[in-house]
Amino acid sequence: MFRFTSIKDYHAALVADHTTCTQAVKYYLDQIATQENLNAYLEVFAEEALDQAAILDAAAKQGKRLGKLHGVIIGIKDVLSYKGHKLSAASKILENYTAIYTATAIQKLIDEGAIIIGRHNCDEFAMGSSNENSAYGPVKNAFDISKVPGGSSGGSAVSVQANLSMISIGSDTGGSVRQPADFCGVVGLKPSYGRISRYGLIAYASSFDQIGIFSKTIDDAALVLEVMAGEDNFDSTVSTKAVPAYSKEIEGEEIGSKEIGKENNPKRIAYFKETLFHPGLDAEIKTKIESYLKDLTAKGYIVEAIDFSLLSYLVPTYYVLTTAEASSNLSRFDGIKFGHRTKESIADLNDLYKKTRTEGFGEEVQRRILLGSFVLSAGYFDAYFTKAQQVRQKLVDLTNTVFSKYDLIVSPTVPTTAFGLGENNHSATEMFLADIYTVYANLVGIPAISIPLFTHSNGMPFGLQVMSASFNEVGLLSFSKEQMNNKV
Ligand code: GLN
User: The pTM is what?
Assistant: First the structure.
């Protein structure tokens, strides 16, 4: 039977003729069909994936140069444009919308031989932490189907968790890759802001959004990052910094093979004291992370606690700024240009907008548009929006100071393990607080990863979040790989 462990092993099996891309696609189609109850996919491109696999198999037979992602089967979150394919952001307002161009990041994957197998369910417009805000029903956590997978990229996390794709691509505005990765026991990477082009990613909060990666291994995440990253004329916020060969940079790092502090192997680790004393933090997560930090010290790392009095401002600042940006970004869905339009009788243009948007947007999206419009409105702008921008600047300054002394910051990824379906959705603010550890990286634009290192006594997995200075993905991945290696 086909078994996927890593892209490297899969490629070795292809070269040795032990498998083919077609066999791999068939295996995943089978998995997707038998685990349909998880609701991870909104659509599967079965025929197309098989056709693409046949083309790739034929090319390999003829000895053509193979791409870095030859035959790698990838699912994409339904907020990423893929020409000729439906794109709904899990919202009724984009029902029946077909993408008219392909996102740069997705095109780069295809150019290296990846097979896009389908689009993943998610929270509507990437707003949520449990995948319960999808217009197409919640996604279920494959470890325990009474539990949420996290959100908003819940379908993408479950896809890698339950072997429904080799790799999946999500988006992370405040934790939407790392939080579901934590809940599902997989690797979830959010690169630096501006590392990957956002062209073709449906905007939620443009100054926070970043495309991210779910994988089983750090090597796979590094390889996929290296393919997707880099300059793009269609996104003026993307960095022009050269893209390191991430997969090579962290190559061959077997257990303890690199001296700590040498060759991109970070040594100085900080953690924010307040994160471990947060009242919402599960006691067992706290103990396990604390003892992990002790072990790191024993191994020769310098691990130090630093004060972070701004912790309680993170979630409010994030929600003021992201809802403001969202209210502007989502104004384009008006029933005129594309997507759903009301069939009710209408009195005037305003009435058309109102009815269309009331019918098309779910409750959470409406809440955020209202909140965003409020914080931007005359009279409140300075009290909320300007204030939140000032806090954001303070956070950036603090971050620069921290990274002048340390290589990495670590924390839990989420305060709890995956909660039950329906358990948290009675209170928006309770749900928002689950984002306490993840929103920081988006507020200041640094890269962050959740690595699946722990299992709770309740049987659910949880991760360690690691953050580095902007564009130090090499250090981040290098350290993460070392931790994953030590776990085995
Ligand atoms: N849970 C956060 C929110 O609801 C993060 C969402 C995201 O990263 N897209 O805003």
Answer: 0.96
